[in-house]
Amino acid sequence: MTETGEVTYRRVHHGSPELLFDCMTRPEHLTHFWGPAGTSTPLDGIVVELRPGGAFETTMVNDADGSTYRMRAVYVEIQRPERLVWIESDVEGGMRTEVTFVALADGRTEVITHQTNVPAAYLSAEARAGFSTSLDRFAAYLASLDVEPTQPE
After folding, report:
1. Which of 21, 26, 38, 82 is most buried, judged by most C-beta within 10 A?
2. Rounded to an integer, what distance in angstroms lies between the CA atom of residue 86 and that of residue 129?
């Protein structure tokens, strides 16, 4: 058996937990940011069956050579807008991803992505840097939506 580990990424974004949750669960949003820099994820390559036991699949295309990488997962927990959990059974050990959306007082949301059963290849500095570029793409996409920050009352 291959050794696995875990990793956590944290980012704070402008926008409500509801908006960020919807961006992470609707193909029309996912197509704009899913995958590391240098890839694209066409709308017709995204499947979201937003229910426990439902499929979550993406087909990323390498912009340089056209090669594809398919991610297949199954949702195990959905609590809009606080939490999403899926398992990629194709990844040895069944990599589990939990995404938690935490509302902050100033109209921002902290997104915590925690992965367990992560194969060693996904734990390398290069793989982690690639994942970070996908988080950067998510931030840029959210900024493009021109979300007005909510004012404290």
Report:
1. 21
2. 21
Q: One-letter amino acid identity for 36?
A: P
The pLDDT tens digits of the residues spanning 16-47 come to 999 999 999 999 999 999 999 999 999 999 99
Decide: 119 and 95 in contact? Cβ < 8 Å.
yes
Q: Which residues contact 52 (CB under 8 A, 6 or more apart)?
A: 75, 76, 77, 78
| CATH tag, 4-144 | 3.30.530.20
Residue type, 104: L
Identity of the amino acid at 60: M
The set of residues, in sequence order, having a beta carbon less than 8 Å from that of 110 and lying 6+ positions away, is: 10, 11, 12, 101, 102, 104
Q: What pLDDT, on a 0 to 100 scale, did the predictor assign at position 138?
A: 95
Token pair in block for residue 9: 């990424």
Q: What are the distances in angstroms from CA 129 to CA 54, 72, 134?
A: 29, 21, 9
User: What pTM did the predictor assign?
Assistant: 0.89
Collect the ranges in the chain with pLDDT lower than 70.
1-2, 147-153
